[in-house]
Specification:
Rossmann fold, 56% helix, 2 domains, alpha/beta, 13% strand, ProC C-terminal domain-like fold, 277 residues, single chain, 8 strands
Length: 277
């Protein structure tokens, strides 16, 4: 299975994440006529149809029946109520199921869909909304190599994707990438507030901090050395950067980050347990 084989995708749910993935796919050359979005309300569907030229429907069963891959893009709280009525259609047509909902275990999805389904769990993050996302992917034993390849094509349309070997690895991805944009937003927020206390206007501090974050991330992505070396290159001995880094280290920043990421991962595990059927 590959994009060249005229794979038809159906998105159950047409919210921000689904719209972003669909937009990325169309921009990277996926034929719009091979994408279907299903949603009870026409409000979001009409926008997608008009701006991207995709097919739309209010009938989830029709979307599943027409698709080689079904992307489940509804809120975790309503996933069961959306998937269970589609079990007969899933069993008849046997599409690959790709879930982008956090916290829903593969076993639960499989049970709700009638069982014996090829399922990929995907954990994208919010920068996917601007095609700069990072997604973790986990496939159950029924997913073929060809299906894995096309799933990568789908998620790489909005950033990068990495496979994990076990479903528990998705919780690690949540801590590393899924929730991580908020960590960087917190750092930027704190830097902006510190700048204001120094006497810089909020507007100027915001622009300087955000541009610096963008530049640092771009350097890290494009550099042939790791981030530790990039940090060292900014730290002139006895200079200003060195003093700031020493202060961060003395305050235990590494311990704080480790504690926060483990708290995130533990909560992801708790949520997965809560959604088990």
């Amino acid at each position: 299975m590959s994009k060249a084989d005229s794979v038809t995708l159906a998105f159950i749910g047409a919210g921000n994440m689904a719209g972003s993935i669909i937009g990325g796919l169309v921009q990277t050359g996926w034929p719009a006529e091979q994408i279907i979005a299903a949603e009870p309300s026409n409000t979001k569907l009409d926008v997608l149809a008009e701006t991207l030229g995709i097919r739309t429907t209010n009938n989830n069963e029709d979307a599943v029946a027409a698709a080689d891959i079904v992307v489940l893009a509804v809120k975790p709280q309503i996933m069961k109520s959306v998937v269970e009525p589609l079990a007969a259609s899933f069993q008849e047509h046997k599409p690959l199921i790709v879930s982008v909902a956090a916290g829903i275990p593969e076993n639960s999805l499989n049970q709700w869909a009638g069982g014996n389904m090829a399922i990929v769990r995907c954990m994208p993050n919010t920068p996917s909304l601007v095609q700069l996302g990072a997604s973790g992917l986990y496939a159950n034993a029924l997913v073929s190599d060809e299906q894995k390849s096309v799933t990568e094509q789908i998620m790489d349309a909005v950033g990068i994707s990495k496979w994990v070997e076990s479903e528990a690895g998705i919780d690690d991805v949540i801590a590393l990438a899924g929730s991580a944009p908020a960590y960087f937003f917190l750092m930027m927020e704190a830097m902006i507030e510190a700048g204001e206390k120094m006497g810089v206007s909020k507007e100027a501090a915001s622009e300087l901090v955000i541009q610096t974050a963008l530049g640092a991330a771009t350097m890290a992505k494009e550099s042939d050395v790791d981030v530790a070396e990039l940090k060292r290159r900014v730290m002139s001995p006895g200079g200003t950067t060195e003093q700031a880094i020493f202060s961060f280290e003395d305050s235990g920043i590494r311990t704080m980050v480790d504690k926060a990421m483990n708290a995130c991962r533990n909560r992801a595990e708790e949520m997965a347990d809560a959604f088990k059927d």
